[in-house]
Write a structure and sequence with these properties.
single chain; 109 residues
């Protein structure tokens, strides 16, 4: 069981990851602009976070085993988030995206 910070926990990809992490018995801090949109699940704590606030985000993710970001960025927008992960001391950082994740009927595009 890991302690995971999930950034973008209320989004399309993040909400699915949140459920998977909860079902796997992990302790999750779900971080979103609007934490009230984060689904209440076992082992999940919803927190408000701003991906452009390096210091505030570093404080939220400090002490976790891993950070997962499901937030869509343009390349230049990731600087504050990457610096927050560095400043927090968390050693594992995973970025996931939603390209190709739309659920469609088999055989359809």
């Amino acid at each position: 069981m890991a302690k995971v910070a999930l950034i973008g926990a209320s989004g399309a990809v993040g909400s699915r990851l949140l459920r998977e992490l909860s079902d796997g018995g992990h302790i999750v801090t779900g971080i979103a602009r609007n934490p009230e949109k984060i689904v209440a699940l076992p082992g999940v704590t919803a927190r408000k976070g701003d991906v452009f606030d390096t210091e505030g985000l570093a404080d939220l993710i400090r002490g976790h085993d891993a950070v997962i970001s499901s937030v869509h960025f343009l390349d230049s927008d990731t600087d504050a988030l990457i610096e927050a992960v560095r400043a927090s001391g968390v050693k594992r950082y995973l970025v996931v995206g939603g390209a190709g994740s739309r659920e469609v009927a088999p055989g359809k595009r």
